[in-house]
Design a protein that fits this description.
Shape: globular
CATH topology: Purple Acid Phosphatase, chain A, domain 2
Largest sheet: 7 strands, mixed
Structural class: alpha/beta
Number of domains: 1
Order of helices and strands: EHEHEHHEEHHEHEEEEEEEH
CATH superfamily: Metallo-dependent phosphatases
Radius of gyration: 19 Å
Number of helices: 8
Distance between the termini: 29 Å
Length: 326
């Protein structure tokens, strides 16, 4: 179980331990009670991986009222009626009168880190955003949208933007926040970014994010965590298992936080007429700027944890020493 108590301060005033809440794909399931739950959990930082809804200004507006440090990136559903010709044809509003993509960006302000970064010097970390509105995969999609919004026309240019943001961070420790994960984490349907629809299998990660991570490692930045969503834990081709939600490569933990749907109800045993709304969050514990624990939790609006599912625990020093001697 993740210990929610805060660690001691280092000599530079940076906490030796941090607890981060990662919020997976929301898909309209966010009320003010979720703000309350997140604030009651007492985390140091919240990270949102996107897909708030189909250009849902209401959901983004609620999140913008959070009273704790946070960063966010917008997902493919957050430009559902804007990014493609197909989406614009289905749009319920007039694009000549409204720009709901820009309205979401305005609501989030500097908290939105897509193609950018947000420094948290008081926590000793900087959050770098990948390409916003990603659909995943190795085919460049929505070229007109990216060209008009960002002046970007391919994966290489996208990677350069992400790398520039990482190079400009104020902190040595960098967390990457993305909607879809990076290429290179496996090509089975059950893998963390694996394709779970026909034709089955294949790595659906983002190549520009993978390139940016590799470059950032070469310039001496520490990357304890890369977190994202998009590829839901519940698989399309089988109910026999869930998607692999976490992976570690070298010193970096990769977390897919897309536990969808993220709301369920609990019926109290002695009061069956009343049911509680439970929200899921992924809690990541960092000690000395390294991930030591990750859990998926279900909590009520007062931050009481109903269920905690361990996903990762770093090996102890004794375990490492024993392994090296065997």
């Amino acid at each position: 179980m993740i210990n929610m108590s805060h660690g001691l301060q280092s000599r530079q005033g940076v906490p030796q331990s941090l607890t981060i809440a990662v919020i997976g794909d929301i898909h309209e399931q966010w009320e003010m009670e979720d703000n309350e739950a997140l604030e009651h959990l007492g985390v140091d930082l919240a990270l949102f991986v996107g897909d708030f809804g189909n250009e849902s200004l209401e959901v983004v507006g609620r999140i913008a009222q959070l009273r704790i440090p946070y960063a966010a990136i917008l997902g493919n559903h957050d430009a559902w009626y804007t990014a493609s010709e197909w989406g614009r044809k289905k749009s319920p509003y007039d694009h000549r009168l409204e720009d709901r993509v820009q309205a979401q960006l305005d609501l989030l302000g500097e908290a939105h880190v897509g193609f950018g970064k947000r420094d948290f010097p008081q926590l000793g970390v900087s959050v770098v955003g990948s390409r916003p509105f990603s659909w995943g995969g190795q085919d460049w999609k929505n070229d007109r949208f990216y060209r008009e919004r960002y002046g970007i026309e391919n994966f290489r240019q996208s990677a350069q933007c992400i790398m520039a943001a990482a190079q400009g961070t104020a902190c040595e420790t960098v967390i990457f926040l993305a909607h879809n994960g990076p290429l290179g984490l496996g090509d089975r349907a059950e893998d963390i970014c694996g394709r779970d629809w026909q034709p089955l299998g294949g790595d659906f990660g983002d190549p520009d994010l993978a390139e940016a991570i590799a470059h950032t490692q070469t310039i001496g930045k520490k990357i304890p965590l890369v977190t994202f969503g998009h590829m839901h834990h519940h698989l399309r081709h089988t109910k026999a298992r869930l998607r692999t939600p976490i992976q570690k490569r070298h010193h970096t933990v990769y977390l897919n936080a897309a536990s969808v749907p993220r709301i369920r109800t609990r019926t109290p045993l002695f009061n069956p007429s009343q049911s509680d709304r439970l929200s899921n969050f992924s809690l990541v514990r960092l000690e000395n700027q390294q991930v030591c624990q990750v859990s998926l939790i279900w909590a009520d609006c007062e931050g009481n944890i109903d269920e905690q599912i361990p996903l990762y625990e770093a090996p102890s020093l004794a375990d490492v020493q024993a392994s090296s001697m065997s």
